[in-house]
Specification:
355 residues; alpha/beta; Cytochrome-c3 Hydrogenase, Chain A, domain 2; five-stranded parallel beta sheet; two-stranded antiparallel ribbon; 7 strands; 28% helix; elongated
């Protein structure tokens, strides 16, 4: 089950075929898988169907999207990869990683059974086996990247993100760090765009994707929600909403957009439409490593919002006044637009000099 290589121009480049082994048996709701089915830039069907020029042939193994009947038929490529009999592959984890060292007499989550003992195979065993052999490792969604809901204070499972489990200095067989694509759930095009970049890199036609210090793609998570928000101009003019059906800035009723790295307001959700503040929802920081603990209670005004909104009030009032004066001038037609019998536009014809 080993794919052939077209060339050996680097660590794992020039592949003609790539398997994607996607496990969503982390502490998860499968929301990231469901979200990715809505992608259009590119669509997952186009990637798997070979419709994107220059990509390797892709074999996707995901329980929700699998054409198999499940059971051992579905598990076969995962077992082969864990045994070193299938390569190259990209390992995608969905859901947070529970600490199986504190599971008492049971287990937190599993994926299939041990063929020898018949006992459930816990997630950590799969992570250990697959990450050690994967050409690239991707964490899909905030639970997999930073722990998310399951890792919040007071949880009994000791859940964590994949980088917390493997180590933040982890590198894959392809020489890549873990690629984190956060979101609760992940924005569909963000994930597919990142995966496509990785596949071009696997084909040997693109460099590794650039990542920030939290291993997020920089071109997707380099700016804040506020930077791309439709309501940012209201903030500048100190016009703040006090109800959720307002068109104004939502920062005083719980929005964390000014400090959250996320491109959803600019990109939208499906087909460029939607995105939390775009449709009247506050940003609760679901793409951030500190989510949810550092941003609760969600509906309360963020600590910094009170100070910043107070400081900007005099500036905003002045700007609104000046823009109102300017608008009063430019929101009128010029005076020479009329139907009288005299030209008043200021037209002055120039006589041509005689030769």
């Amino acid at each position: 089950m080993t794919a052939t290589r077209e060339s050996a121009t680097g660590p794992g480049t020039g592949f003609e075929e790539v398997h994607i082994l996607w496990i969503s048996e982390g502490m998860s709701c499968d929301g990231d898988t469901v979200s990715v089915t809505a992608a259009s830039q590119p669509a997952i069907e186009d990637v798997v169907g070979g419709l994107i020029p220059g990509l390797p042939k892709v074999h996707l193994h995901n329980k929700v999207l699998s054409p198999t009947l499940g059971g051992e038929e579905f598990l076969a490529p995962f077992r082969a990869a864990a045994a070193g009999e299938l390569e190259p592959f990209i390992f995608v984890l969905e859901g947070s990683v529970p600490n199986e060292k504190i599971n008492g007499e049971g287990y937190w989550t599993s994926f299939g059974n041990d063929p020898v003992t018949g006992e459930p195979l816990t997630l950590d065993k799969w992570i250990d086996a697959l990450s050690a052999r994967a050409w690239a490792v991707v964490a899909a969604g905030t639970c997999a990247t930073y722990g998310g809901i399951h890792a919040m204070e007071g949880n009994p499972t000791g859940s964590m993100g994949l980088a917390d489990y493997l180590g933040w200095d982890f590198t894959s067989r392809g020489g890549l760090p873990i690629v984190n694509v956060p979101g609760c759930p992940v924005q569909p095009d963000n994930f597919m765009e990142t995966l496509t970049w990785l596949l071009y890199h696997a084909a040997g036609t693109a460099p590794p994707p650039p990542l920030d210090e939290m291993l997020r793609p920089t071109w997707l998570f380099g700016n804040t929600v506020h930077d791309g928000c439709d309501r940012a101009a209201s903030y500048e003019q100190a016009v703040f909403a006090d109800t959720y059906n307002s068109q104004q800035c939502l920062v005083k009723i719980g929005c964390w957009g000014p400090v959250v790295k996320c491109n959803v307001p600019k990109r939208g959700w499906m087909g460029g439409v939607g995105g939390c503040p775009n449709v009247g929802g506050i940003c609760i920081a679901c793409t951030m490593p500190g989510f949810p603990d550092k941003f609760m209670p969600f509906m309360d005004e963020p600590p910094g919002a009170r100070l910043s909104s107070t400081l900007i009030k005099p500036y905003g009032a002045f700007i609104r006044r000046m823009r109102g004066i300017t608008q009063g001038t430019v929101n009128k037609e010029p005076k020479w637009h009329h139907n009288r019998d005299v030209l008043t536009s200021g037209y002055r014809p120039h006589k041509r000099a005689r030769r």
